[in-house]
Amino acid sequence: MSGSADAAAEEAARIERGRLLFARPVRFFFAAVKLEGLPPAEAPEVAFCGRSNVGKSSIINAIAGHHGLARVSHTPGRTRQLNFFAAGEGTESPLTIVDMPGYGFAQASKAVKAEWQGLMFDYLRGRPTLRRVILLMDARIETKDGDRAAMDLLGEAAVPFQIVLTKSDDTKPASRLEKRQAEMAEIVRKRTAAHPVVLTTSAAKGTGIPELRAALAEIAAGG
């Protein structure tokens, strides 16, 4: 088998492992507003974070194949807690998905923003089972100060993160998306905590969802 055939076969195997991880129902099981209220640290965890209107709930729902799992709100900044979801229950490699409060919400007061940031940092720094943060970035708009602040926070907490672009189906023309992807690649090169692979997704079209599931399956398996 040629090198390209080997690579294709391995990628197909990765995609299948991701599909199998989410073949069973994903279950919401806990919500916490304070660090001392977190559930026991057991399965490997992957936390999703991003701006309040980045489409975080839609991506989590798309991964889980359950459109009503994570609540999709039209009010930015509404999620004020850490929401925990169990994936792959009953398998050898279960995974916990954590939906973090959004950042950059213009309507939230400074006091609330500071409180949320404190919870985020305490969780990031002190959670022993946290393996990676998926940092969602809107493919349609430029990187905001809040995005850079979030990356700084992740770096300070010494937590590895992976950038995932959202809403790629709504990015026109194609050259605009390519420019955004190039921008993300440059950010990754400059951030030591950043995973080298940037994924491009669309919850509406399903673009990149199998690849994201595959990445999560590797983390669940200890990769």
From TrEMBL:
The keyword Protease does not apply. Keywords: Cell cycle, Cell division, GTP-binding, Magnesium, Metal-binding, Nucleotide-binding, Septation. Its cofactor is Mg(2+). It comes from the Bacteria. One of its GO terms (molecular function) is metal ion binding. SUPFAM superfamilies: P-loop containing nucleoside triphosphate hydrolases. The keyword Nucleotide-binding applies. Residues 42-222 form the EngB-type G domain. One of its GO terms (biological process) is division septum assembly. InterPro entries: G_ENGB_dom (IPR030393), GTP-bd (IPR006073), GTP-bd_ribosome_bio_YsxC (IPR019987), P-loop_NTPase (IPR027417). Necessary for normal cell division and for the maintenance of normal septation. Belongs to the TRAFAC class TrmE-Era-EngA-EngB-Septin-like GTPase superfamily. EngB GTPase family. This is Probable GTP-binding protein EngB. It comes from Roseomonas indoligenes.
